[in-house]
Every structure is written in structure tokens, then in C-alpha cells.
């Protein structure tokens, strides 16, 4: 069995995209998340919203992939928003001391 | 790193694997092994009566350490890793212990505690380097010993009275 992530992408307008992620984000699955994010970073997006409601496990490779989104936001002036963090995932962000750095919304949208 | 499942990846040694509180296995680094490790962590955390949130932390630490061995020690190629977990009740406080033994030619010369205490540069965030920080922030003790033919890694999680003896 090969683990994989499932993505549901919704382009709300030309400047805003919502990406729902389903599955465990690990060293083996985070490359597919990066593949989903890359074209968004190079587009004219102003807001990228990542829904993590269906992610119950995330390791440092997942956080590292999301850090790339943070870098994109800083460079482009856009917003890279995370929401729907489970207790487990939020805990890992807090342990990494990155919970205050990311734009995390409490709503599960 | 190969994605091809291989039944030989998981081999229980001749030790008494039915022994309560102790599990051993031998792995080849590939993606399927993470599932096996995660299952063992779940079992051991349940035996140790560790909370769900802390179990997730333990799982992340084990995941990170195995990924580090696979990616850095073996360079992403298949390599033998022996894994053992047991609950140590011999001391004053019980401990949940995870041991990894690799046979990689490459020895890591760093110091886990040094990595863990390096502050995160929030202004210049880089994707790398978080794994060891997570391991060290989650485990109560992280040990690394360079051997003649590889590395020995040990992660120790102290069990509070509430953790281990609650019914």
C-alpha cells in the first residue's frame, strides 16, 4: 500500500484558491503537496487557503512544504492561510514554534 | 528509496516477540516501513497508556528519526535498520524506549541537543532542519552513538505514573 494525498482544488476567482488536503503528510507524501502548490506560487494568486481538516498526521516534511508557502507570501505580498488544523497537527506546529508565524485561521471553512 | 513493497522488509528476529512490552523488527528503508513503524508506535503507546496527543508526538519523533536515517544515512537507498521498542520499568520511573540501529557507512557527526537548541530564524525560514528539532523537543532524551559499522539511536520517553499505570 502506497500512501498518497488527495487534493480538492477550488479556484474561487482569479486571485484566490482553496486547496483541501486529505491524508497523512509525511516525507513520502509531501512531494505531491509541493506539486500542487508550485503552480499556485508562480501564478497571480493573492490568497492561497489550505484546508487541513482531513489531515491527522503531519511531520516536518509537511511543515517544510508549507514553509515554502510562507516564503511565497512574504515575497509576493499574498496571503498563505492554513485552517482546519487537527489537535495533532496544531500541536506539531506549536512544537516547531511556527504556529505564530503561519497565518492560521480557526474556522474550518 | 524504493516504493516496491517487500515482505522481507519486516522480519521478526528469534527473540521472543510475544514478550509483553517489547517489539523488535528489521526493516529496509522504504515508504511502507513508515506504516509498520506507526503501527508499532501505536501499540507501544497503548501499552504505556500514553495519551492520544502524546502518542502522536511519539509517532512524529519516530517518523522523523527513521526518515533521517533513510534519507541522510542511506541517501535514500534501501538499507537495513533494526528497530526495537520496550518499556523499561527497572528504574524509579518507567520509560518507553525506542532503539534504531543502522549499518550505514555514513556516520552523522552532529549533536542532537545542539541542533535542538538552535533558535529558529523566523525572518529567514528555511524548509530544512525541523526534523531533529521536533525529535528533541518531543523526546525526553535523544542519544546517538557512532558504531564501527553504523549508528545507534535511542529515543526515551519518560512515563508518568498517570501514563503507565492508569487502568
Topology:
The complex is a heterodimer of chains A (109) and B (167).
Chain A: E1 6-13, E2 16-22, H1 30-41, E3 47-54, H2 60-76, E4 79-83, H3 87-95, E5 103-105
Parallel strand pairs in A: 2-3, 3-4, 4-5
Antiparallel strand pairs in A: 1-2
Helix pairs in contact in A: 1-2
Chain B: E1 22-28, H1 31-47, H2 52-73, E2 80-88, E3 95-102, H3 112-117, H4 130-138, E4 141-147, E5 150-158, H5 161-165
Antiparallel strand pairs in B: 1-2, 2-3, 3-5, 4-5
Structure, explained:
- The complex is a heterodimer of chains A (109) and B (167).
- In chain A, helix 1 runs parallel beside helix 2 (60-76).
- Chain A has a domain at 46-109: STAS domain (Transcription Regulator spoIIAA), CATH 3.30.750.24.
- In chain A, helix 2 (60-76) links the parallel strand 3 (47-54) and strand 4 (79-83).
- The model of chain A has no long low-confidence stretch (mean pLDDT 91).
- Chain A has three helices and five strands.
- Chain A starts with 5 loop residues before the first strand and ends with a strand.
- In chain A, strands 1-2-3-4-5 form a five-stranded mixed sheet.
- In chain A, 35% of the residues lie in helices and 28% in strands.
- With 109 residues, chain A is α/β, with parallel strands linked by helices.
- The model of chain B is unreliable at 1-9 and 15-19 (pLDDT under 50).
- Chain B starts with 21 loop residues before the first strand and ends with a helix.
- Chain B has 167 residues and is α+β, with helices and mostly antiparallel strands.
- In chain B, helix 1 (31-47) runs antiparallel to helix 2 (52-73) and helix 2 crosses helix 4 (130-138).
- The interface between A and B is medium-sized, with 26 and 29 residues.
Amino acid at each position: 500500500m502506497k500512501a498518497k494525498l488527495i487534493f480538492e482544488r477550488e479556484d474561487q476567482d482569479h486571485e484566490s484558491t482553496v486547496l483541501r488536503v486529505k491524508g497523512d503528510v509525511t516525507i513520502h507524501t509531501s512531494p505531491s503537496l509541493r506539486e500542487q502548490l508550485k503552480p499556485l506560487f508562480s501564478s497571480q494568486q493573492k490568497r492561497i487557503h489550505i484546508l487541513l481538516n482531513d489531515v491527522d498526521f503531519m511531520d516536518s516534511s509537511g511543515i517544510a512544504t508549507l514553509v515554502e508557502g510562507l516564503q511565497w507570501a512574504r515575497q509576493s505580498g499574498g496571503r498563505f492561510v492554513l485552517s482546519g488544523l487537527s489537535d495533532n497537527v496544531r500541536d506539531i506546529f506549536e512544537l516547531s514554534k511556527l504556529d505564530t508565524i503561519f497565518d492560521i485561521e480557526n474556522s474550518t471553512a | 528509496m524504493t516504493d516496491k513493497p517487500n515482505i522481507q522488509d519486516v522480519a521478526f528476529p528469534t527473540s521472543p516477540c510475544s514478550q509483553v512490552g517489547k517489539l523488535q523488527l528489521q526493516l529496509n528503508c522504504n515508504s511502507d516501513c513508515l506504516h509498520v513503524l506507526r503501527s508499532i508506535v501505536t501499540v507501544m503507546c497503548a501499552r504505556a497508556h500514553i495519551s492520544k496527543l502524546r502518542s502522536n508526538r511519539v509517532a512524529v519523533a519516530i517518523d522523523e528519526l527513521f526518515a533521517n536515517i533513510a534519507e541522510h544515512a542511506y541517501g535514500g537507498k534501501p538499507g537495513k535498520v533494526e528497530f526495537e521498542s520496550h518499556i523499561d520499568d527497572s528504574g524509579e520511573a518507567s520509560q518507553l524506549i525506542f532503539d534504531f540501529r543502522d549499518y550505514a557507512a555514513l556516520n552523522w557527526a552532529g549533536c542532537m541537543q545542539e541542533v535542538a537548541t538552535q533558535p529558529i530564524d523566523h525572518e529567514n525560514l528555511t524548509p530544512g532542519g525541523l526534523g531533529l528539532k521536533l525529535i528533541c523537543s518531543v523526546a525526553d532524551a535523544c542519544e546517538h552513538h557512532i558504531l564501527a559499522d553504523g549508528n545507534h539511536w535511542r529515543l526515551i520517553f519518560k512515563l508518568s505514573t498517570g501514563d503507565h499505570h492508569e487502568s
